[in-house]
Amino acid sequence: MNFVALPFNNKYIFLHSKKHILFNWFNVLWSVFLWLNVALFVYYLLSIFKIGGTLTPINYLYIFAIISLFVVVKLVLQFINSFIFNAETAIVHIVFNKVSYQNYSGLVLFVANIFLTYITPYSELVAYLALVLFIVVLCIGWVNLLRIHRNFITVNFFYFILYLCALEISPFVIIGSYLKY
Questions:
Q1: Does the pLDDT value for residue 10 go beyond 70?
Q2: 56 conformational bin, left if phi > 0, alpha if psi -120 to 50, beta if neither
Q3: pLDDT per residue as tens digits for the range 77-92
Q4: What is the percentage of the chain residues whose pLDDT exceeds 90?
Q5: How far apart are the C-alpha atoms of 156 and 1, rounded to whole Å?
Q6: Which of 111, 133, 107, 125 minimizes the C-alpha distance to 49?
Q7: pLDDT, position 180
C-alpha cells in the first residue's frame, strides 16, 4: 500500500531500502511491468506520430528487447561503478530509490496504454499527457533521491558528477545521436 503513495511520501523507500530488497520478486516483476509498458508506449508513439513506417507486433518485441537490454546493462554498470568506488551500500540505496520511482511511473504508462488501446486510440493529447506525467514522476523521484542522499552526494560530489555524466546522461545522448541517423 505504501508503494501506491510513493510520489506523495517516502514511507515505502524508508521501509524497504534498509532490507536490501532491490532484487526481490516484487521489484523484478514491477520492473518487467515497466519495460512492457514503456515498450508499448513507445510503439504507440511511433504509430501516432508515424515514425518508422508501418509497425508490426515484431517491432514491439524489438522495442521491448532494446529497453530491457538498456536497463540491465545500465544497472550492471552502476553496480560495477559502486564496486570500483567502494560505495556499494549507498549505490544500492540510490538504485533502489530510482527503480522504485521508475516502477511507479510504469503505472502512469499503463493507464496511458489502456487509453491508447481501448478508449482514445491514436490520441496525441493522451500521449503528450502521459509523457509529461511520466517525466514528472521521474523528476519527483530524482528530487527525493537528491534530498535523501544529500550528505553522501556532498561528500562525494566529484563521483556524483561522474556518475551523472557516465551513467545517466551519456546513454541518452548516445541513443539520441544513433536515432538521428
A1: no
A2: beta
A3: 888 877 887 878 777 8
A4: 35
A5: 34
A6: 125
A7: 67
Rg of the chain's alpha carbons, rounded to an integer?
Answer: 17
Tell me how many degrees the CA angle 67-1-10 measures, rounded to the nearest 5: 75
- Phi, psi angle pair for 58, to nearest 5°: -65, -35
Phi, psi (5° rounding) for residue 121?
Answer: -60, 140
pLDDT, one tens digit per residue, over 152-179 is 778 878 777 777 777 677 777 777 777 6
Q: Report yes or no: 72 and 161 within 8 Å, Cβ to Cβ.
A: no
In 3-state terms, the chain is what percent helix, strand and coil (to 5)? 80, 0, 20
What's 54's DSSP letter?
Answer: S
Q: Return the amino acid letter for 67.
A: I
Phi-psi region of 125 (alpha: psi -120 to 50; beta: other; left: phi over 0): alpha
Distance in angstroms (rounded) separating the CA atoms of residues 82 and 94: 11
Neighbour-count burial of 126, counting CB atoms closer than 10 A to its CB (0-12 exposed, 13-18 middle, 19+ buried): buried
Q: Is the dihedral of CA 150, 152, 158, 162 positive or negative?
A: negative
Taken in order 14, 19, 23, 29, the sign of the CA dihedral is negative
Q: What is the pLDDT of residues 101-135, one digit of tens each?
A: 888 899 999 999 999 999 999 899 999 999 999 99
Cα(141)–Cα(83) distance, integer angstroms:
24
User: What is the reported pLDDT for 169?
Assistant: 76
